[in-house]
Amino acid sequence: MYTICRKNLSNEDVEEVHKWLRRNCISTHRLRREFSDVLPLAELLKREYPRLIDLYNYPKKSSVQLKLANWETFNFKVLSKFNMSLSKEFMEHLANGVNGTAEVLLHEVIKLEKRQRLAVERNAILKQEQAWEENDEVKTVVINKQIGDGIVQVPQKMILYSLYEKIVRDSQAKDVIIDAYQQRLTHMENIIKVKTERIEELLMQMGKIPQKMTTGCFITFDSKDT
Questions:
Q1: Which residues contact 108 (CB under 8 A, 6 or more apart)?
Q2: Where in the chain does DSSP place strands (E)?
Q3: Looking at the whole model, is its pTM more than 0.90?
Q4: CA 79-83-88 angle, 5° bins
C-alpha cells in the first residue's frame, strides 16, 4: 500500500494543483484552512465515486481532534480502497492546517485520477482485444502508445494484406455497380423530362383546337345571314 507523507512539491506540481482546483471551481486561497477537514475532499471525490463515499460519515468539524478523527475514517473507508494511506503525521499536519500539506494531498488525488483514467482506457482496449480474438484473419502486434501522461505497450490488431486487397476489390466492384445504377437513373430522369415536355405540348395544342373551331362556326353563321 502506498503511504502519503509530507514532501516538497515542485513549482510545476503546485501549478498543476491550482489548475485542478480552478477546474473544480475551488478557490486557491485559504487552501490549508479549507482542507484541514476532510469534507471538501470527500465532496470532490463523491462526484467520481458516489457509491464509495457517504458524506454523512464526515460531518464538518471545527476542533483539531475531531478533524483528525474524520481523516482517520476517510483514510480507512476510502483511500484504502485505492491502495493508498495517509501517514499519522500527515493527517495531523492536515488537521492543523500546516502550510503546503493540502497541496501534497491534492497532488496525490490528481495522480489517482490519472491512474483510474488509465485503467479505464486499458480495460476498454482489452475488451476490444477479446472481441478481435475470434477473428483468425486479424493478427496482433505490440506497439507503444501514449495513454494519459504515460507510454505503454498495447496490442494492435492488423489484418492480412491479402484480406485488405480483397476488401478494396469488393469496394471497387460496388462502386462500379453504383455508378451504373446512377447512369441508368439519370437516363430515366431525362426520358421522363422529355415525355413530360411532350405531354405539355400536346395538352396546349388540344386546348387551342376547340377555340378555333368555335370561332369558325360564328364566322360562317354571320356570312349566311348577310
A1: 4, 84
A2: 2-4, 84-86, 138-147, 150-159
A3: no
A4: 55
Strand 84-86 versus strand 138-147 pairing type:
unpaired
Q: Which amino acid is at 7?
A: K
d(CA 115, CA 137): 34
Contact 7, 89 (CB under 8 A): no
Q: Which amino acid is at 45?
A: L
User: What pLDDT digit, counting tens, does each position of 75-92 carry?
Assistant: 998 888 888 889 899 899
Cα separation, 186 vs 122, whole angstroms: 51
Q: Which of helix, strand or coil describes residue 91? A: helix
Radius of gyration of the chain (CA): 40
Dihedral angle computed from the Cα positions of residues 95, 100, 104 and 109, in that order, rounded to the nearest 10 degrees: 70
